[in-house]
From TrEMBL:
This is Xre family transcriptional regulator. GO terms for molecular function: DNA binding. Pfam families: HTH_3, MLTR_LBD. Residues 1-46 form the HTH cro/C1-type domain. InterPro entries: Cro/C1-type_HTH, Lambda_DNA-bd_dom_sf, MLTR_LBD.
Length: 248
């Protein structure tokens, strides 16, 4: 985006924007927020920009366990529970596991204990050789998908924690994929092909974000949900859920 493009989108003259950029003019808090909005800057970075301009932060950051976010947590639990018997998790901005439904046990089974000790990082759990990686049949493909997503997130947020996580995960072995399949799913999305016992399960993944966050913590939350990509996986997940209910 050029300076002229940004000035048009933000509704400010290119001359004034140039003066702001070079330090000849001091931006108002409203202008800082308008520029941040047009640049799709994360809420935490918007607070940093306001502080740099000599203003108070505009966005609060509440604790997830605090009373302010209790309605949000209740809504997320409803989403996670309603998604069963398919796996779904709530993660924070650094991919730490916040909540999960019981179906996620399918992915954590067999993982080393050090990967399951809080705080659990779901990307590390996915790609670590002691985690899910040995059971991911298309590991190289899935790994590339996750690393590209993490890299874009790290660049967008300028978050050193995410950058360090990317560097760590990039050093993990990628494995050898099985021959690519030509099914309909693989033609439109990258599936997760996962071995459970003697079965191959195939999943589609979706990401759900809060549409109008005004809190730094909420803006970093995401629900990662997995759907069966074929009838075999659907039947297997329902069978596992029925078996768990009988044991319970």
């Amino acid at each position: 985006m050029t300076q002229l493009d940004l000035s048009i989108e933000a509704g400010v003259s290119a001359r004034h924007l140039s003066f702001v950029e070079t330090g000849r003019s001091r931006p108002s808090p409203d202008l800082i927020l308008r520029l941040a909005e047009q640049l799709d800057t994360p809420l935490a970075e918007r607070n940093t920009m306001l502080l740099a301009g000599g203003y108070a932060p505009a966005y609060p950051s509440h604790d997830l366990d605090g009373p302010e976010l209790a309605p949000l947590r209740a809504a997320v639990r409803q989403i996670l529970n309603g998604h069963s018997p398919y796996p779904a998790v709530l993660v924070d901005q650094h991919w730490h596991l916040v909540e999960a439904n019981p179906a996620v046990a399918l992915f954590t089974a067999g993982a080393a204990q050090h990967l399951l000790a809080p705080p659990i990082n779901v990307l590390r759990l996915s790609l670590h050789p002691d985690g899910m990686a040995p059971r991911i049949l298309n590991l190289a493909e899935w790994r590339a998908h996750l690393l590209n997503r993490l890299r874009r997130q790290a660049v967008t947020t300028n978050d050193p924690t995410l950058s360090a996580l990317h560097e760590e995960l990039h050093c993990y072995p990628c494995g050898d994929d099985v021959l690519p399949t030509s099914d309909d799913v693989s033609a439109v999305v990258v599936p997760l092909r996962y071995r459970h016992g003697d079965q191959e399960l195939s999943f589609l993944s979706t990401t759900t974000l809060f549409g109008t966050p005004l809190d730094v913590t909420v803006a970093g939350l995401a629900v990662e949900a997995f759907f069966p990509a074929d009838p075999v996986t659907t039947a297997a997940l329902h069978a596992l859920d029925a078996g768990s209910a009988e044991v319970g």
